């Protein structure tokens, strides 16, 4: 029997034009020390910088709806 656990890290995107900065989820396959501050591809397909100070899910209002939905699957 194989047990697979998916871990997510919180990542913050940058504001771009009319788009505000949002919190996103990143699927993590490496130790947290290796991804500290790295820019990664999020679940919704955008790029965002991982924040090790925040845990996913982030208790904030500015969370990406796509990442929130995909991280529950």
From TrEMBL:
Taxonomic source organism: Blastococcus deserti
Top-level taxon of the source organism: Bacteria
Protein name (Swiss-Prot/TrEMBL): Uncharacterized protein
